[in-house]
Specification:
The protein is α+β, with helices and mostly antiparallel strands and 354 residues long. 21% of the residues lie in helices and 28% in strands. Strands 3-5-1-12-9-10-11 form a 7-stranded mixed β-sheet, with helices on both faces. Strands 7-15-14-13-8 form a 5-stranded mixed β-sheet. A 3-stranded antiparallel β-sheet has the order 4-2-6, with no helix packed on it.
Length: 354
């Protein structure tokens, strides 16, 4: 053991001094010459069709440099390539309270906020789906047209061993149902991004992201520029825990606003907006049947989990799988059955939370 260089030895924390003294810079600490500021208009409705958006008054406000709506960034994205179901700004329909529908760049944040308030959106409200039971109920409308079963995003089944025989061999068999209401990451640092699109067509983005490579790939795709022209820099990250582990629409909006204005653009979310952005742990309803011997030995386990994924896919496929695949890992278990169902609801999307 004495020959090992890492294990068993104290190692200096390379960023300790900068963090302890406040010298470390985060995305919101970055200020560039001629920088503009962006704000987002968000939906007040959990589920509604967008009949029209009038941005003329916002455009005419002195100090406003550019305004975007969903049609300006129509390319869909997602952290998992087989579930790209989001756009930077809502197109035709909003699916949760707080979903962005327009973005503004202005000379200062106050003007951007004022411009956002001048944007007029005509909504046709739809019946929201706000629970797992509603999502699975017969006759319920689909939140996404592409789902094979209404509002079921992912259905996973895993099994090993003879589960029926395991329960027959048990001295005690019990069933429990657990409810979890979900939770948010609430990192000390709210999400923030600065984008600078240069005249040579190259883009630099500073973002407090946990996944710079995913963001790099998505920026190239959504903005339609070569990946060799995109650079993502991660400054200090003031906590993430999974809540900053995928590309977000506001990052694409900021980059596009920089391209259109010819200026660097910054967008920093408020704490309220972080809760809309969410990606927190899924609310869930989990039924567990357990077989056990008198000496405490487990004979078998059967689990059925229903997860509330919110309005979009996020890491949902992986989350649904992990709930079942990780549950038995700490036990010697000869037989196990798992069924997991993730549903869509009209709430902010859920994702990974460590």
């Amino acid at each position: 053991m004495s020959d090992l260089r890492i294990i068993g030895h104290s190692r200096p924390k390379v960023d300790a001094i900068s963090k302890a003294t406040g010298a470390l810079k985060y995305a919101d600490d970055i200020f560039l010459p001629r920088m503009a500021y962006a704000r987002l208009l968000r939906s007040p409705h959990p589920h509604a069709l967008i009949r029209s958006i009038n941005i003329e008054r916002a455009r005419e406000l002195p100090g406003v440099l550019a305004v975007l709506t969903g049609g300006d960034l129509p390319t869909r994205f997602g952290v998992l390539a087989n579930n790209e179901d989001e756009t930077a700004l809502a197109i035709d329909r909003v699916r949760y309270i707080g979903e962005p529908v327009a973005a503004v760049a202005a000379m200062d944040e106050a003007t951007a906020e004022q411009a956002v308030a001048l944007i007029q959106v005509d909504y046709e409200e739809l019946e929201p789906i706000l629970s797992i039971e509603q999502a699975l109920a017969a006759g319920t409308d689909r939140i996404h047209d592409w789902t094979r079963r209404p509002n079921v995003h992912k259905h996973i089944a895993l099994e090993f061993g003879d589960v029926s025989a395991a329960f027959d061999a048990a001295d005690y068999v019990r069933e429990d149902t657990f409810y979890y209401e979900g939770s948010g990451h609430v990192a000390l640092e709210e999400h923030a991004v600065v984008a600078s699109f240069e005249r040579d067509g190259k883009l630099t983005v500073w973002s407090g992201t946990q996944v710079p490579h995913y963001l790099h790939r998505a920026l190239s795709k959504v903005l339609g520029i070569p990946d060799g022209h995109v650079r993502v820099i991660v400054p200090g990250v003031g906590g993430g825990f999974g809540g900053k582990s995928e590309p977000f629409g506001f990052e694409f909006c900021t980059a596009e606003l920089s391209r259109r204005t010819g200026r660097p653009v910054k967008l920093s979310l408020t704490r309220e907006e972080v809760f809309y952005t969410h990606r927190g742990r899924h609310p869930g309803q989990i039924w567990i049947k357990t077989g056990v011997k008198k000496d405490g030995t487990l004979t078998g386990l059967a689990v059925r989990a229903f997860l509330d994924g919110g309005a979009y896919s996020s890491f949902g496929i992986a989350t649904t799988f992990y709930v079942g695949s990780l549950l038995p890992l700490t036990y010697k278990l000869p037989a196990y059955r798992y069924e997991g169902i993730r549903v869509f609801t009209n709430k902010p999307p859920c994702g990974p939370k460590r």
